[in-house]
Amino acid sequence: MNSYDFDKTIYKNDSSTDFLLFCLLRHPKALSCVPSIIAGYVKYFIFKKGRKEDFKEKAFSIVKYCDINKDVADFWQKNKGKIKNFYLKQKKEDDVIISASPRFLLEPICIDLGIKHLICTEVDHKTGKFLSLNCWGKEKVVRFKMKFKNAEVKEFYSDSYSDTPMAELAKVAFIVKGEKLLPWK
Question: Distance between CA 88 and CA 78 in Å, rounded?
Fold first, then answer.
């Protein structure tokens, strides 16, 4: 089986960021969360304090102002065209998408694309609270091995070397730059 990161790998941008901006524009009351999101950003990214999950929970807290099913459906109707052509040309039935983005956001597009296997961060779609660790770095390998005990990863694709643990699990790995696939270094 082949495994793919999602954001900036098969989707042109970061889907979580795109979705949060989509919701902020759609639901003005969600703007009340922005000061907390900025404070979380400064704490985690500038002062290197706290956990990434804490910052991301603040960002996803805007979901309490959303009609999540409608907003996710409308988001993908508008953004499905950002799925990269290289992926659409080579996708297979047994592909695994493994991502830090939340299930409530990725599951609908995976179903639409015919992707049966999704491993991602579990986030409460009503509160934005994390129900699992952020599915990032080494955690991707932990989750993959939990779901597919002895499965072999033939090829792995990602835009980021933060996914090196997954790349090391694969027989062959590729770094994705736009639509270009380059050998993993």
Answer: 17
Count of domains for the chain? 2
**Which one-letter DSSP state was computed for residue 149?**
T
**Cβ-contact 130, 110 below 8 angstroms:** no
Q: Which domain holds residue 162?
A: 2-13+81-183
CA 156, CA 171: separation in Å to the nearest integer?
8
With contact defined as beta carbons under 8 Å apart, do 115 and 85 qualify? Answer: no
* Residues 92 and 130 occupy one common structural domain: yes
Measured N-to-C along each axis, helices 15-26 and 52-60 cross at an angle, to the nearest 10 degrees, of 30
Report if residue 76 sits inside a domain. no
pLDDT digits 0-9 by tens, 26-62 = 999 999 999 999 999 999 999 999 999 999 999 999 9
